[in-house]
Amino acid sequence: MECVLGVVGRDFAVVAADTSAVQSILVHKTDEDKVLVLDSHKLMGASGEPGDRVQFTEFIQKNLHLYQFRNNIPLSTAATANFTRGELATALRKNPYSVNILLAGFDSDVGASMYYIDYIATFHKIEKGAFGYGSYFCLSLMDKLYRPDMSVEEAVDLVDKCIKEIRLRLVVAPQNFIIKIVDKDGAREYARRAYTSNSPSDAATVTA
Amino acid sequence: MSLDSDRDRNAKRRWLPRAEPKGWTSLDLLAEQEAHLRPHKPKSLCGLSFLDSAFHSRHRTRRVQESRLQPRLLREPAAPAMSIFEYNGSAVVAMVGKNCFAIASDRRLGVQLQTIATDFKRVFKIHDKLYIGLSGLATDAQTLYQRLVFRHKLYQLREERDMKPQTFASLVSALLYEKRFGPYFCQPVIAGLGEDNEPFICTMDCIGAKELAKDFVVSGTASESLYGACESMYKPNMEPDELFETISQALLSSVDRDCLSGWGGYVLLVTPTEVQERVLKSRMD
After folding, report:
1. Residues 7-36 of B with CB under 8 A from A
2. A44, A81, B12, B255: which one has the fewest Cβ atoms less than 10 Å from its Cβ?
3. Cα separation of B89 and B122, whole Å?
4. In this predicted model, what pLDDT tens digit does every residue of B72-131 receive, in sequence order?
5. Is B116 in Cβ contact with A171 (below 8 Å)?
6. pLDDT tens digits for A176-187?
7. pTM for this entry
């Protein structure tokens, strides 16, 4: 039900997630932000058990800030991803967190990168990825349409196509999405996609 | 016979004390949509947690009764009862040649039926003449590799030399047996050049039972196919080029018969003087 997807382009990365907070048959909220801005140049899109998701992502965020306070330099994306993976792996055989994470960041030496971290701490660096039921629709779309040197407009267009597909084909699909971007200028919200019209082929109001 | 009493009875069989979700009614079924994302929401009623139940997959009972409750629409997509070793999919093989060895793996990282990446690394370097391939659950392979590198670096600091392959194999075996009753779900394949550049290969199961071999060792979801392919293609004392060709053909033909592994191959050929790494292009399915 919870969909998180991400794409790495030329010197930027885009992470999108749905914004519904659902419990059983009830939708608590339709504007829940599941892509946390970890620090100036990192985004963490998370999906999974709601309590675990919020607790774990905020835990990572606070540890990241602590490192920066102590050492006066920010942690790199790769180091953050490995730290996150280590925390999940340590907790796995004691008290597992049920959170799937797509961590995207921009480093001045490496450029944009994105890491796929499973709930059982499977760690892999990827260019395009998705979690949840939405992934069954998005991954093949991305395989077809993704190119490594995409511009921001092309990447967001790809994400929009994925969102459209999820809305159309997933039963009880989340309608509203948030899209965040990270590039050399920092991590920020790029757009929100809200389902406003009756026609299923309309994609959305943009506020950014 | 109510479902709840079955679950209460089966709850006693669990190893870990864990709260079962109360109220297994139709209202909760929507919440259980992505049960495959949570480690402990078993579809079966035998009440074992995700990791433990996979280890005891033969003892699963009463799964059919459970699935009748859920309307067909809302049931999670076909997730067949898979062993934990088949969760990510893998194939690793090592072969001995004349004063050289080759170790190869597939490149798929999957989550059951879905492919996540096609460039996943399964063969890791310990030192210039020692490599380990880890098949099975990817997260445990990564954790185990990190622990082994840590132990080897400590050994290098203390002994001021690299570990011999036989010693390393014993180390891996000991590390795995330490977790006898909560194991790492990996089967390592170790390959190295020992004293006098004598090739050494061995494999072990997930609790460290070493299996030395003079010709080839295999592990992973495609292991049965690999056994057959290697047995028929292997010859003793092959030169490096011929060894590379043989191991590549054996790997590719075996993973083609296994849906969970494949999507390319990665072959490392190690001789006393050089290391050759090659990526194989194969059927991308």
Report:
1. 27-28, 30-31, 33-34
2. B12
3. 11
4. 444 444 555 679 999 999 999 999 999 999 999 999 999 999 999 999 999 999 999 999
5. no
6. 999 999 999 999
7. 0.81
